[in-house]
């Protein structure tokens, strides 16, 4: 984890920002709960456990800054809640997600599935893609299994 903190610190410094204690507490929560796709409120409650003096507004500002600097991705799965996801080291793009409409589970796809699509967009429309997001909404394996066993 310390390696990732150092890399994020360098990313901030490169943009003339510092890794303040408040920002570090927020980053640590995101690193510890990387699979969880936390909302700002979730991050705040977890940061508050570590550093009770940090306010919700500080956490919001930190998440927005990290999002602007492409250290985290701000994502929405269609439920009206913004969630924050640390960008993988060296990733050119956001990773993709599978969202179960039955249980709400979120699974990540690390592989970039859209390289060919980006080339088509660039060649056909002359549009230079900087980033993309892909979210599939459907029913996960576990919920499908429950549906199958319930109908048997």
UniProtKB/TrEMBL annotation:
Keyword S-adenosyl-L-methionine: no
Pfam families: FUR
Entry-linked Gene3D superfamilies: 3.30.1490.190, Winged helix-like DNA-binding domain superfamily/Winged helix DNA-binding domain
One GO-annotated biological process of the protein: negative regulation of DNA-templated transcription
Cofactor(s) recorded in Swiss-Prot or TrEMBL: Zn(2+); Mn(2+); Fe(2+)
Keywords (A to Z) from UniProt: DNA-binding, Iron, Metal-binding, Repressor, Transcription, Transcription regulation, Zinc
Annotated positions binding Fe cation: 115, 132
Cofactor note: Binds 1 zinc ion per subunit.
Gene Ontology terms for molecular function: DNA-binding transcription factor activity; transcription cis-regulatory region binding; zinc ion binding
Keyword Transcription regulation: yes
The family this protein is said to belong to: Belongs to the Fur family.
Protein name in UniProt: Fur family transcriptional regulator, ferric uptake regulator
Source organism of the structure: Virgibacillus chiguensis
Lineage: Bacteria, Bacillati, Bacillota, Bacilli, Bacillales
């Amino acid at each position: 984890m310390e390696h990732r903190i150092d890399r994020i610190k360098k990313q901030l410094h490169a943009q003339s920002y510092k890794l303040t204690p408040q920002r570090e507490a927020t980053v640590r929560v995101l690193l510890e709960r990387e699979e969880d796709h936390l909302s700002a409120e979730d991050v705040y409650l977890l940061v508050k456990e570590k550093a009770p003096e940090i306010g919700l507004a500080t956490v919001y500002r930190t998440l927005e800054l990290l999002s602007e600097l492409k250290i985290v991705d701000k994502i929405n799965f269609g439920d009206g809640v913004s969630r924050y996801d640390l960008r993988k080291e060296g990733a050119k793009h956001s990773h993709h997600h599978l969202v179960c409409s039955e249980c709400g589970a979120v699974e990540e796809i690390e592989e970039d599935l859209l390289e060919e699509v980006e080339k088509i967009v660039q060649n056909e429309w002359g549009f230079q893609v900087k980033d993309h997001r892909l979210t599939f909404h459907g029913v996960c394996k576990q919920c499908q299994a429950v549906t199958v066993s319930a109908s048997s």
